[in-house]
Sequence to fold (793 residues):
Amino acid sequence: MTEPVLSIEHLSVDYQIASGVVRAVDDVSLTVPSGRVVGIVGETGCGKSTLAQAIPRLLPEPPARIASGQVIFRGTDLVRVPARRLPLVRGTGIGMIFQEPLNSLNPAVKVYDQVAEAVLIRQWRDAGILPTFRGGPNPFDYSGRPLPEAAQVLSRPILPGGPAAERARRRLPGRLGVRREVLDFLRLVRIQDPETILDCYPHELSGGMRQRIMIAMSLSERPSLLIADEPTSALDVTIQAQVLTLMKELIDETQASILFISHDFGVIAEIADDLGVMYAGRLVEFGPVADVFRSPQHPYTKGLLRAIPERYKSEGPLAAIPGSVPNLSRLPPGCKYHPRCPLAQAVCREDPPPELTRATAAVGETHRSACHFPEGVAGLP
Amino acid sequence: MTQPPLLETVGLTKRFPLPRTVTEFFGGREVRSVHAVDGVSVAIEAGQTLGLIGESGSGKTTLGWAIARLHEATDGSIRFEGEEIAHLSGTRLRRWRSQVQIVFQDPVGSLDPRLRVWQIIGEPIRVQAELRRRDALAERRRVLRANRRTRRANVRRTRLGDPPRPPSPLPVVPPRLTRAALRARVLALLPTVGLPLESLDQYPHEFSGGGRQRVSLARALSVDPKLVILDEPTSALDVSVQAQILNRLVELQRERGVAFLLITHNVAAVRYVADRIAVLYLGQLLEVGSVRDVLEKPVHPYTKALLAALPTPDPARRRIRYRITGDIPTLINPPPGCRFAPRCPFAQAPCRVADPPLRSAPGLPSHLVACVRAEEVGALPPGVLLQEAGQEPAPGGVSPRGDGGSGAAPVS
Fold:
């Protein structure tokens, strides 16, 4: 279980635009260990969504192009997987949840058919009718595992396999079995009366309900990695709390690894184990979530944390970061953050900061940042 | 209170009738309507900020638009400085508009992409200047007519030996606002919202989201209004830029004494900007009070649940939060009673029959709440989860779960 589910090495993604090439993701390296939730936080245009979509190679190529780097998922470098084999990877290995579920669900297909499609494809794969993705060292064995019993789905972890796999092989459960499994997955995401919504179209459901169906669909493929791209940003606070609680419970039940992308520090603090902070395409800080919040090692992280409005106006002004996020086609030289950075010195304007390294001796081995002067961050107001 | 508040709504109601099909029309089916805002009474004091929070569909934007007279209210009254404005129309409405301005939610859609910044910000100034000039010209014409009558009368009066009456002085008509003058006024406005002077001749697309929101803000402030309605001013912005805008808002209020109605779902922004907070749920006002009282000692179960649902940016304080079960119900001809009752762990049978009246919270005369069990909710210690509290067999009985129609309280 020590092998990470996903490890990204020096990944760079370019976009070809009319005026040239912009680099949306710049030399990002990170790992998602098995069973952990890795959060990525950053402002608009920092490349976090590009990163999320580059992993399962969902970006349209062109205009996007993976310029360099490796995305090693269960031992396979996805950057070099031929395009025709990609659907396999996406289906059986990586699940995705997007921000606006209405855009990801087919508006002309009923809920049942959408979930059933995912379930059916997986059953065909299990039965050997469709080919299966076989990565390298696999944290969970997907090649053969028993079909779930209706009652068991809620009471035990759904992912690991078992000895009954052989018996299930070449025996498809049929229409009623599909229906039962669809209902199981809808119950898994805490939909109270799944029968009542099977015949609904996505537009008839509320945002929280749609997002649950998206989660159910991604889980029905039993992915070993779930990429959640701002899954709660379009939802109301109370619904967001429901979805977050659901995701936390599902993490415990399924032991899934999640790459969780958000702009909201509150949401990240709630769910993530590790946290990466992105700015202008680069990962500027990475570490265990508690450490990053307690002692940020990059001035940008510190600025973001300080900018969260958590006070009344009688208690003085908020600590805003001056300026705004730079345009990716007009990035400053040296450290991308230096025009807004209170610690910037001459070297920051010329030389890019070092790669992610353990910042100071005061922090843990896994807490790394990319800054010339990390020791100065603690002294910032 | 001797002086009326700057703006006051009394029982403001806005319903949007739904279209009927031909068969429904001839079948005599009655018009159904969306009850977007239902009998809301709030007051905004001069130079203060009222924060309006609620989830999507709670009617907060509709309320803001109705106050700005962009929606025609179905019922109720809106008083501005003690004067009824819900039925103003024509020139009087246009004149009144210089008092109340609005910053819209969408910083892209609310700025004309083909106008330059000085034209966008200068438009209200130009409109109000033209209005003033038109009023002055009309007044001048009236005085001229009166003077003509006086002259004719004076001929008669001299004939009779009476002393002639002097003509009234003509009113000063402001000159037409020239392009240069308008640009100068806009230029003077730019620094107040933190825009660089070069932006005068730029187009909206050249700005980032924060810059566009500043242009919107400058446009709203251009005619020196007494009240600015801010409809989700920071929801499209990133955290670092949001802090800049919020700081600017508070400074502007201090400098100019303008009142704000801050409409948002972002509790953190409201905490920083507002003096008082009103909590809206499905068109009804549930709780209103000073910002500290509402955020720290909420007495309505919905407010409590809403605040408990906020994710805290602190991994050490992760907790299983109280979840309001169920989704927001429909607003089309909603059932009588408290709108929150179907999801409320404290709901009792009477909650589903009649609207709970807005009354003073226990011990706080200026803190109003619409809940019959506010005392119990307010007395709960902050750490206690609502769901558990609601499940305890409290005196009077509590329905065990919020969802579903289990309306009757368990018999004790």
